[in-house]
Q: What sequence folds into this?
């Protein structure tokens, strides 16, 4: 399962509701980006959601 390496956010599920009120299952996927982050003194490539990148929870390497 693809999820954020910082906050653990993954896909959420719900219903797609049509105009005729038909319901089918659908998924909302988080906006994940692969970034080079400084983790424990070293640099690692991790999948991080854009909210964690924007809020500064990830220290990106040069």
A:
């Amino acid at each position: 399962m693809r999820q954020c390496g910082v906050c653990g956010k993954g896909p959420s599920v719900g219903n797609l509701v049509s105009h005729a009120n038909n319901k089918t299952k659908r998924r909302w996927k988080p906006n994940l980006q692969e970034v080079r982050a400084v983790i424990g003194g070293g640099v690692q490539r991790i999948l991080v959601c854009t909210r964690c990148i924007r809020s500064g929870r990830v220290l990106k390497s040069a």
Observations:
- The longest strand covers residues 32-39.
